[in-house]
Design a protein that fits this description.
Blueprint (H helix, E strand, L loop, with lengths): L7 E7 L6 H9 L8 E7 L6 H12 L4 E5 L5 H12 L4 E4 L5 E2 L3 H11 L5 E10 L2 E4 L13 H7 L9 E4 H6 L12 H11 L3 E13 L11 H21 L4 H21 L6 H10 L9 H8 L1 H11 L3 H11 L1
Parallel strand pairs: 1-2, 1-4, 2-3, 6-9
Antiparallel strand pairs: 4-8, 5-9, 6-7, 6-8
Helix pairs in contact: 5-7, 5-9, 7-8, 8-9, 10-12, 11-12
């Protein structure tokens, strides 16, 4: 049986990325891989700028023959873009990359060698460095993790895990066998996808290798601010994580508890940081529709879940104090 020559499918969801996509693509095509070893799938999600033209020009100049451009007719957000990429991919393994990020020099060749040595591994986790407004803010994040191979459920309980899809190399057949896909048409679709993949992985390990340079900026989806839609999507994510934990209770209680801990942490964080910023009616809507898991050890999280209207009234009364509390907290750091 002939082996698949295309080892990597690199999926890049793009929306209005004309200013960044060239740097992103350069970081791939300067890795030293032969065109047969990899493919790049750029999924344009209804950009309103010249993103498609920039990618087409890049393909014409480089003539690599392995750069695909897929255009959505309807905006599906990043999750939809990644799903389209998975469906069209032919590589043995899939990598996700955001259009404003890049791969470290030589990192992809190292990943390919690691995958070849560990044939059939479902997921390989790696590290990244972070940039904030163009300045490096953290060189690495997870280099203290254990490097031994283990099942995903054990990995989830014992390792520090980034809840972002671009920190992992996924075996394509593994994703397809389990029908693992992202939620579409929403923001913050990352964490629950990573959790579902990790739970189902039979073979998974961490490699202490910095592969991705990730950028943070005020224009990204992760910059929430006072955007009601984004805040609602954060609570929807927390609710999906709660659902995963509840389903996992029937299979592995310890793994379920680990996921629940993340759900409760995020739910509390989202209330403290974001919920007070929005109008009262929206507070009530969120608290009624996206409740924290109960019972839990946090009394006020439990109270918010059982008495959402009363909790919203209290939060509204305390609202003038939150900016001052945040200012005091930041000045003490």
């Amino acid at each position: 049986m002939e082996t698949n020559k295309c080892q990597l499918s690199i999926v890049i969801p793009v929306f209005n990325g004309s200013n960044e996509i060239n740097i992103c693509l350069d970081s791939i095509y300067s890795q030293g891989m032969s065109p047969e070893q990899f493919e790049v799938i750029c999924v344009d999600d209804c950009s309103s700028d010249s993103t498609v033209e920039v990618i087409e020009d890049y393909a014409n100049r480089m003539q690599p023959g392995n750069l695909k451009i897929i255009r959505h007719n309807v905006n599906k957000r990043q999750g939809g873009g990644r799903n389209t990429g998975i469906e069209k991919a032919i590589g043995t393994y899939i990598l996700f990359l955001d259009h404003d990020d890049y791969f470290k020099v030589g990192s992809l060749l190292q990943l390919v060698r690691i995958a070849e040595i560990n044939t059939g591994v479902d997921i390989v986790m790696f590290d990244f460095e972070a940039f904030t407004n163009g300045i490096i803010s953290q060189k690495s994040h997870y280099l203290h993790n254990d490097t031994k191979e283990m099942k995903g459920r054990e990995f989830l309980q014992s390792q520090e895990i980034p809840w972002v899809p671009w920190c992992y190399l996924y075996r394509r057949d593994f994703l397809n066998e389990h029908c693992l896909r992202f939620e579409e048409n929403i923001r913050f679709e990352d964490a629950d996808f990573v959790m579902k993949c990790t739970i189902l992985a039979q073979r998974m390990f961490f490699v202490p290798l910095i592969v991705v340079g990730h950028t943070y900026s005020d224009s990204q989806t992760t910059a929430v601010g006072n955007n009601v839609g984004k805040i609602i999507d954060l609570f929807r994510l927390s609710d999906r994580i709660k659902k995963i934990a509840m389903e996992e209770m029937l299979v592995d209680k310890e793994c379920s508890n680990a996921i629940l801990a993340h759900h409760l942490f995020q739910h509390k964080y989202d209330i403290m940081r974001y919920l007070w910023r929005i109008p009262f009616s929206q507070m009530v809507y969120i608290l009624r529709h996206y409740r924290a898991y109960v019972p839990n050890s946090n009394k006020w999280l439990t109270f918010s879940a059982r008495y959402p209207l009363i909790f919203a009234i209290v939060l509204q009364l305390l609202k003038p104090l939150f900016p001052l509390m945040r200012k005091i907290y930041l000045s003490s750091k």
